[in-house]
Amino acid sequence: MADEQIDREKDAGDDRKESGSFNTAGTASHGRVASTTSAGESEGEEPEDRYNLVYLTMMLHGIGILIPWSSFITIAVEYYVCFKLRKLTPHGGEETPYARDFLKYLATASQGPNLLLNMLNLFLTFRGGLAARIFVCIIIVCVICAITMAFIFIDTSSWIGGFFWLTMVLVVLLNAANGVYQNSLFGIAADLPPNVTASIMIGNNLCGVFCAIVAMITRAASTTPEASAMAYFSVSLLLVTACGFSFMLLRRSAFYQYHVNKVGKEKRKGGTSKEIQDDSDKRTTEEIFDKLSDYYEVVKTGGVQLLNVWLVLFVSLAVFPAIQAEVRPRDDFIIPKEYFELITSFFSFGFFAMCGAMLSNWIQWPSPRFLVVATTLRLIFIPFFLACNYRPITRRWPVLIANEWAFIVGGALLAFTSGYFASLAMIYAPRVVAPSKSRSAGMLAAFFLVIGLCTGIGFTYLEAYVMENVGPLKPLQLGDATGDMCAAFNKTA
Known about the structure:
The chain is an all-alpha fold. The chain has a single domain (3-492), classed as Growth Hormone, Chain: A (Up-down Bundle), CATH 1.20.1250. Helices cover 71% and strands 1% of the residues. It contains 17 helices and 2 strands. The protein has helices at 3-19, 30-41, 53-84, 97-100, 102-123, 129-150, 160-189, 194-220, 225-251, 254-269, 285-319, 337-359, 371-377, 381-386, 404-431, 438-469, 481-492, and strands at 87-89, 92-94. A hairpin with a 2-residue loop joins strand 1 and strand 2. Helix 8 (194-220) runs antiparallel to helix 15. It is found in: Membrane. The chain crosses the membrane at residues 53-81, 130-153, 159-177, 198-217, 229-250, 306-323, 343-363, 370-393, 405-429, 441-462.
């Protein structure tokens, strides 16, 4: 009945082994180390998070979770659609089926494995607990980044189909690893103070800001597709590597050990665990049902917060980036067309979502009871953005909101409420359940976050179909989609 407790005991036990001389300042005797460790395990005074090490480390991991995938989607059109997957001809580039459908395949290959591995991570127990899973996932992500960088220098024009499917395999592995990484990280954060969970959300959104800035710089500098891809994936590799080393330091922190051990003690007091034994690779039916029982208790007590997590991410992904990035400005608007979607969609969403997540550190309103009212009201964003100048050439519905500034303000509100309410829901989920269930609640909330991502992305297909096939108007003539996109990149190059 104690898989969650086994994970927590393994994490805490490994941390105590590794802490050794790191728990004390300067040279310490063996006895002093022991007393420091026992203090961390007791219910004494809470150690200080010196230099905000734990907070900043979790923020770094918030960036590290998303930076490789953000690099893939940011560079997808310029590098994959318009370069690697486009057939070279004497007259220039020619569209291939792989280029035309790349973005659809990319979305499918990303979210399916992410959802599946998040679900499996809820039930499977591994030696070393959640910390070991994080280290393994970081290694996998680093290897994928390195392989992707290596193919920048390889001519794949003679085997475009093979390169396409190899890329899909890498995307599947990347998102599977990221799914376990994210779920495990939120599980650990659930044992720590609420602002630590908020720091992960801040890191997630800071990643979006960073990628948007890099995209604007590379576009303004007229870099080649290869140079742009190398810049993105080099930075991704460095940041994910830094996450691995920072996690080693995190586990040696007295602040971290104190909270992990404190929650473990609450688990034992609650009488929900059996004698802790080495798992010995057993995956019994009883263990599965015990975990299901834990998750049932979490859903019964904190189900509304899980609904809030899903609602926030569903609405956000139903609009951003698929709908928001395809809203077009007038020719004479102050922001040039080639930078419009980067500034008003990608940069704006990342920046304001980060601001919202940061605000949750100081203001936590509405309360857990009434947060669902706010998250439900956000559904109004979906018809709002569809009423803007979305896909003006192919839409069959009239444009009701033609003003670009209304679109920009709406985008800022969408992003800010996404960061703020998502952080609140992730903070509330482990706090409204018994302390012994906090880690289960954190992991389940992360799972609902991914469900929100998947359902939001899936809903964009329905939105596009309705806007282009159901309305009363006749669409304008549409040219080659990928050809138009690549022409825009060639103009800035």
